[in-house]
User: What shape does this take?
Amino acid sequence: MDLPAEEEQPLYSQRPEWADVVPLEQYESVAPLAPIFYTDEYRDATNYFRGIVKSGEMSPRVLELTENIIRQNPGHYSAWQYRYKTLMALKSPLDDELQLMDELAIKHLKTYQVWHHRRLLVQQTRNPGPELEFIANSLQVDTKNYHTWSYRQWILAYFNDDALWSHELDFMESMLESDVRNNSAWHHRFFVVFQSGVRSGDEDRDAVVRRELAFVKERIAIAPNNASAWNYLRGVLDHTKISYCELQAFVLPYSLPQPPLGTPPEVVDLESPLPSKNSQLPCVAAVEFMADIHEAAGGGDLVKATEVGYVLYELGKYLTYRSFGNPWQMSTILYARDTGNTGSRNP
Amino acid sequence: MSTSLLVPQHVAYIKALGDSKHELSYHLSAHLRMNAVYWGLTALLIMGHGDALDRDEMIDFVMSCWDEEAGAFSAHPDHDVHLLSTLSAIQILLMQNALNRVNVGRIVKFILSLQQPSGVFAGDAFGETDTRFVYCAVNALSLLGKLDELDIEKTVAYIRRCRNFDGGFGHVAGAESHASQVFVCVAALAILDRLDEVDQPTLCWWLSERQLPNGGLNGRPEKLEDVCYSFWVLSALSILNKLTWIDSSKLEGFILSAQDTESGGIADRPGDMPDVFHTIFGLAGLSLLGYPTLVDLDPVYCMPASIIENLGLRKGWKALQRRSS
Assistant: This one.
């Protein structure tokens, strides 16, 4: 638990300026069996909070009281709710409140209330500009925080201002630069490029698809065993209704146990970048991708599917159990091989 | 570390939770108290010890959280009403065969008042929206036999907007797929008989990919495993009838290794402190995996299957066959 950062305050029950409030105990019948330092503090503050809620008071000291409670227990949603109502009633300067939230959000990144409160505030201030920078900073603390990313998507979509959107691709690139396996960043890229309208400069959709395919292939080449990038590739293809078969030349080298024989070509093929040196091959996602290609090609291509099945079977020792994760494809392959061997899969 | 389920310790652990009122964590979790009672009771029922907690005391607690003005339940007597605690209250009362204590009409009115024009539900008057709350609303209305009062098309339309390119679902439209949000969306669609909205091949593949080499499941790619995903992932796979897509014995071993052998309870992962949240979801996972002696759990409602069957609400999910030893 996070203790209040500021210097120790006396209990509300000892402060003369709170003498007019009747505190409401939570457990009248339960004596504190083992009171510890901050239990008293928490009980004291929440007793006064109950008293305030009962009288309906909305004043500056309520802001101090609710901040105290939130610092001790950021999940106390009644304190958040009452705080927001008080801020509105007092017409308090919301920029100050947002500054306080900058601090609390970083401390309590995983608390729903921190983010919801912030949304309510920004809906009032209608000033989303500084938010993207704040979000970028908090993503430095936790690069995959679900709430932070969701808040970024909300800011973009809710205010839907070209200036806000304009740096998203650069931002994504830098996030993926520091961690190419960050699924949140991959998801966000899909959200920006495909799911939220056409951004200024992205009007030529064919060019956008080419750019995205090049982008994801390049990152698969750097780190082939990265489920997020393969998901993204599939997502782009599904979304734009491009057949998986068109990617066969790119995917094939990743689905084989060794890199293709011979020295790497002098000129890098941008359409089909090869796996980087020392990659662990075959890449499970690529084998599954090849299986999909052959399955899509239909029953006439069972020989190919058999080869893929053979690769999977032979390389079982490299593959964890989950590599057999898609029996809808595996069933086709195994049917073709007619071995009845299902690896270590359960019946 | 233990390789078998320590039922007596877990029963004792849950019983002791209510006795720790002097501990700070008890007070700090007051905003989740109703949920915690639901988790604890469900865990006991799954272990076949539903009578370990006092029934009358529990019902009294639930009813002390009824807010006459709002027409719903709060998590604790002095807190604000919320959809989460209202669902938990209904579930507890159902499991204690005491649903006749509530005013169904008022609860239905409260739940429906939280639906937004987009179809999503807010959790309370504070206005936070989330597919979790869509599930809570659908689940509660279904348990109360009042689904016919819900605008189902509008509700499904919102869930559809939360479906992502990887087949999963996020907490709001546009948000990243997350296993817990997959559970709430898939279970809500199951209750509404609308599983046709799920891209099953893509989603089941994504769900099976959640298993890590140590057997545990994570909630998103490249994240750590956590016992609670045993339920979020397994429930969805069970509802879609694909439980065999993960290695059940490795997952079972992972859940069992997260047990606290001394104080009882299950933690998020081995070596961490147990809590009631991970205890129920670890047990729920084990039940779906056919662990011996456990009671069948309904993955759609996360309640004992027999209770849901008696209400005539059972959907077409499949768990692994219960093993005899």
About this structure: The radius of gyration of chain B is 19 Å.
